[in-house]
Amino acid sequence: MYRTAARRLLGAGFTTSRLLRLPKPRPTTTIIPYSYCTSSMESPIGNQSVNPNQSDPTAAREEGHRRDESRKPRAEFQEEQARVLAASLRHVPRLGWTEEAMIAGSREVGVSPSIVGSFSRKEAALVEYFMDECLQLLIDRVDSGLDLQNLIPSERVSKLVRIRLEMQIPYMSKWPQALSIQAHPVNVPTSFKQRAMLVDEIWHTVGDGASDLDWYVKRTVLGGVYSATEIYMLTDDSPEYRDTWAFLDDRVKDAFDLKKSIQEAKYFAQDIGAGVGKSFQGLMNGVMQTMSTRGGRSSAF
Amino acid sequence: FSGFQQVKEEEKSKLVGNVFTNVASSYDIMNDVMSAGLHRLWKERLVGKLSPFAGMKHLDVAGGTGDVAFRIFDAVNSVKRRALRKVDEASIEETQIYVCDINPNMLNVGKQRAAERGLSDNRSLVWVEGDAEALSFDDDSMDGYTIAFGIRNVTHIEKALAEAYRVLKRGGRFLCLELSHVDIPVFKELYDLYSFQVIPNLGELIAGDRDSYQYLVESVRRFPPQERFAKMIGDAGFEKVEYENLVGGVVAIHSAIKL
């Protein structure tokens, strides 16, 4: 049931994360001569996302058969873009999340750097590709037998977040730039969606079965923990990021305690409400009595 | 003559040649007046979409007066950009922008403007006389191909597109800026009124040539609408064909990639 909630919240993009577990389909051999899509000045973000992971399986199903034909030749562009972005990642530690890195990447792949001009929101395309790749790696790690059996939920969450954050270590010097790119208003919808998918994946792996309001609370809380740890990591100098992992463990513990605290806060509020209600009622009774003895003929009450 | 007249193919290129010989000298002024200066913004957007890089080999077709070429040159060479992007001087030297036009008069205007900017000796800008349907460049030699307000004058659009496909490298970008079709109800009528009543009169007044501008306006109407043109681009072999309407469709930028 959480999946339907996820779909409501995140829309079409979410189902991709489930499908990431399946092998990618082979591209078909029929060559359709053209593919095109329209864009106006106000084209919706993500509508024409060329994110390679959000490719054919979801698209074909979601957008109906009519569009199906036009997707296949675009797949070649998606593949090419993925190749260029993958090669570009190697240049990021030196050149940052910039067009230069992508130009260098495209040269490596043997494609004209002009192709970079056609990526939507250029640097953001690179960052988003990286985020998707990391999520895919995380899923693969989990699928290939990560041992979580002997750990309590809070430790499982810690471990998964740690695995995911460790993927960013090679790019740590340029990660603040990636964060600022993700924070651009134009890029926020996509980066938010990617983080939501990540957080959801972690909870799903931990074995979460909640489906009510708790679902949103859990995702939000973990999102907060993840972001806080990510930012802490930027300024951490300790060997092997020991301080970051300690910070992470503390935050996760707080989060799990938070659940209890929220419950306690609810009871506390109820008690207060009852108390206040009683005293308010008493106040009103007193007022009315006073009015009637003094006014006599008053018909207000 | 009018653009709506059925003109024999060989004659079309001669007529177009005449149009632009007449038009060349006041071309820039007329552009400014007809579009109220907006054509500059459109060209800026075109070059923005191209994302020029240092060391690129670019071909601007039918760009005789050099508007687009100069913008690309500036984008690659601007000091600010160089400082920001840590580009080495060597790759800037390698940048080659070819300006190809069928009409030598237009090219001369372009060369003159280059001289005014002090760029007449610069090896990055190369002025070539040539036909969009039969380019003299090698296969797979260009990183970018632009054609701004030129493709509607080509007799065989498919040939021009095929040539564009031929000269582009793998990953190369095709960009076409062209007057296109407006569909928005009220605006369409206003635009038609402006086109048929105002522009030929302006042409008369400023360039002393009503007929050429009448031809211009009518040739815009004959040009395929956005979707059909996009299909033609795709048929030439390009991938990721997209278009963007500016000013409600008065102008459209089509873009595509060769893969």
TrEMBL record, chain A:
Residues 59-77 have a biased composition (Basic and acidic residues). It holds the Pfam family COQ9. This is Ubiquinone biosynthesis protein. Residues 43-57 have a biased composition (Polar residues). Residues 188-258 form the COQ9 C-terminal domain. GO terms for molecular function: lipid binding. Belongs to the COQ9 family. Membrane-associated protein that warps the membrane surface to access and bind aromatic isoprenes with high specificity, including ubiquinone (CoQ) isoprene intermediates and presents them directly to Coq7, therefore facilitating the Coq7-mediated hydroxylase step. Participates in the biosynthesis of coenzyme Q, also named ubiquinone, an essential lipid-soluble electron transporter for aerobic cellular respiration. Pathway: Cofactor biosynthesis; ubiquinone biosynthesis. It is found in: Mitochondrion. InterPro entries: COQ9_C, Ubiq_biosynth_COQ9. GO terms for biological process: ubiquinone biosynthetic process. Keywords: Lipid-binding, Mitochondrion, Transit peptide, Ubiquinone biosynthesis. Residues 43-77 are annotated as: Disordered. Coiled coil: none annotated. One of its GO terms (cellular component) is mitochondrial inner membrane. Gene3D superfamilies: Tetracycline Repressor, domain 2.
UniProtKB/TrEMBL annotation, chain B:
One of its GO terms (biological process) is ubiquinone biosynthetic process. Pfam families: Ubie_methyltran. Keywords: Methyltransferase, S-adenosyl-L-methionine, Transferase, Ubiquinone biosynthesis. It comes from the Eukaryota. Coiled coil: none annotated. InterPro entries: SAM-dependent_MTases_sf (IPR029063), UbiE/COQ5_MeTrFase (IPR004033), UbiE/COQ5_MeTrFase_CS (IPR023576). GO terms for molecular function: methyltransferase activity. NCBIfam families: MenG_MenH_UbiE. HAMAP family: MenG_UbiE_methyltr (MF_01813). Component of a multi-subunit COQ enzyme complex, composed of at least COQ3, COQ4, COQ5, COQ6, COQ7 and COQ9. Interacts with PYURF; the interaction is direct, stabilizes COQ5 protein and associates PYURF with COQ enzyme complex. This is 2-methoxy-6-polyprenyl-1,4-benzoquinol methylase, mitochondrial. It comes from Brassica campestris.
